[in-house]
Amino acid sequence: MTHGSCRFKSGSGHHFRVCGEQKGNFVALYYTRTVEKDREYWWCACGRSAEQPFCDGSHKGTGVSPVQYVATRDREVFFCGCKRTDNAPLCDGSHEL
Ligand code: FES
Asked: Which among 88, 31, 90, 40 has a CA at the least distance from the CA of 65?
């Protein structure tokens, strides 16, 4: 799929935007993950984690903190990948802007 100068790719629950002006850079739009009821998850808000969309501690020194998410039921969740959501940690479509 294309959008302007960008191409979109998907695979293994990852959805990426690849823009011509950002050769080699992959910007995650969102991540689909299956979560378990009552389990706690920590969403990476800084974008540095190698374990996206979850925190791996790489935010240290950035002044950014991860956001807690507790699943209310077993379900598939769309976690924000672009880090611009106003509904952290969930995707709100801000990556389209
Ligand atoms: S690694 Fe990004 S918030 Fe922890």
From this structure: 88
For residues 7 and 44, give the distance between their C-alpha atoms in angstroms, rounded to a whole number.
24
For residues 25-51, one letter each, b for 16 or more C-beta atoms within 10 angstroms of the residue's C-beta and e for the rest, the string is eebbbbbbbebeeeeebbbbbbbbbee
Exposed/middle/buried for 84, CB within 10 Å: 0-12, 13-18, 19+?
middle
Dist CA 45 CA 37 (whole Å): 22
pLDDT in tens, 20-65: 444 455 677 888 899 999 999 999 999 899 998 999 999 999 999 9
Among 31, 43, 48, which is best to mutate for testing ligand 1, by the most ligand atoms less than 8 A from CB?
48
Question: Which residue's CA is the nearest one to ligand 1's atom 4?
Answer: 55
Q: Is the pTM of this model over 0.70?
A: yes
> pLDDT digit string (tens) for 71-81?
999 999 999 98
